[in-house]
Amino acid sequence: MPNFNFASIFLKERAAVFLSLSKTRSFTATSRQMGLSQSSVSRIINELESELGMELMDHTVRPIRFTAEGTALQKFLSSETQYIDTYLQGLRDKNALKPRLRLGVVESIARILSQRIVSALMPDCSQISVMTGIAGYLLRRLDEDQLDVIICSDPFANRNDLRRTFLFREPSVIIAPDSLRLPNAPSWQDLQYCGLPIIQYNRNNSGGQLQQKLFNRLGLNFINKLEVDINALLLTFVSDGMGWALTRPTTLVQHPELISKVRVYRMPDPVAAREIYVITRLGELEELAARVTEIAADGIWNLIIPEIIRKAPWCADYMFAAADKTGVRKPVGKGIGSRLLVL
Q1: Residue 122 maps to which CATH number?
Q2: Which of 53-67, 76-90, 113-127, 258-272 has the lowest mean pLDDT?
Q3: DSSP letter string, 145-207
Q4: Is the residue at 290 inside a domain?
Q5: More confident position, 244 or 202
Q6: Which of 10, 72, 191, 228 has its CA 20 to 30 A from that of 86?
Q7: In a domain, 125, yes or no
Q8: What is the 3 state secondary structure string of 254-283?
Q9: Do the domain assignments include residue 281?
Q10: Band of the pLDDT at 107, cuts 50, 70, 90?
């Protein structure tokens, strides 16, 4: 750990220069140490003497020789500086004991939950950084030790070196332009012949992967002319009447400014759902990850779920959320949603 001279930050420039000069006994060395010219050092000492109304050194001899007053001032400043350094170093060491949090959050919930997590943990962490991205990208950053905790929509069940805690399950919904009139519970055939193409997530996106798994399983094929990689674009294009889409209700909650021209429909059975987990490397930062889970779960129950139910009340029976930091699943509604596929 570097040895910082904290006291110099708090001392006025004249006192700091004088203290340096008392140690170096050289205008040249002090000018280098303080990042000043020699003439500036001389001027500062002269101003200090003028302000105090006394000579601090004998200006007629070399090497530098301090007067009795200068020696007394040097001893006083040295003792005070040592006290300041000790005190401030203690504060720095105490702060360094706080954990650092490098958090990764999937884009679909980052806007809602990140601020809540950061605000709650800031007093307990020395530093917090937040990164967003798709699940695979966040996992790579976790493996590279660029992230400590990730919140993502893939549990990476094939990895036995990860610790995962359940956070949230949500169903998929159909969104379409307000100008397009569909049945309250449209069928895949209704969507296929509605007159608008599907707008899909890019296949590198976890939403695109979920959709492709579903369509492959059901043997569905839709005309696809437009792909996007983020929810904001998906909602923008749907609200502009360019097509319909399959997405998750958190998309709507995260971008309320974009849904005024969008209608939300129950998707045909089987309903595709996604689950979100808090993931860390096994055996690392378990207490911090548990705290992240607790804060995120509170945000889901109090911010996300009420908005989803307001926009799409039928989603309640398909949703589960963590009851506490351990990830125990608690149903939002009756938990009896009809045919559900967790992909």
Answers
A1: 3.40.190.10
A2: 76-90
A3: TS-SEEEES---TT-TTEEEEEEEEEE-EEEEETTS---SS--HHHHHTSSS-EEEE-TTSHH
A4: yes
A5: 244
A6: 72
A7: yes
A8: HCHHHCCCEEEEECCCCEEEEEEEEEEECC
A9: yes
A10: confident
Pinpoint the alpha helices (H) of the chain: 7-10, 13-24, 27-34, 38-52, 68-96, 107-121, 135-143, 188-192, 206-218, 231-239, 249-254, 286-299, 305-311
- Assigned token pair, 5: 């001279």
Rounded to whole angstroms, how far apart are CA atoms 309 and 337?
A: 14
Same domain (yes/no): 278, 268: no
- Pair (177, 249) in one structural domain: yes
Q: Which residue type, as a one-letter code, is found at position 161?
A: D
Q: Which two tokens stand for residue 274?
A: 């996604």
Q: Coil, strand or helix: which one is 228?
A: strand
Tokens representing residue 10 in the block: 């708090």
Going by pLDDT thresholds of 50, 70 and 90, the confidence category of residue 113 is very high
**C-alpha angle 281-140-127 in degrees, rounded to nearest 5:** 65
pLDDT confidence tier of residue 16, bands split at 50, 70 and 90: confident
Question: What band does 88 get if pLDDT is binned at 50, 70 and 90?
Answer: low
> Could you tell me if residue 317 is inside a domain?
no
The answer to whether residues 175 and 268 belong to one domain is yes
Q: In this structure, are residues 169 and 275 in contact, taking their beta carbons and an 8 Å threshold? A: yes
**Is the same domain home to 23 and 80?**
yes
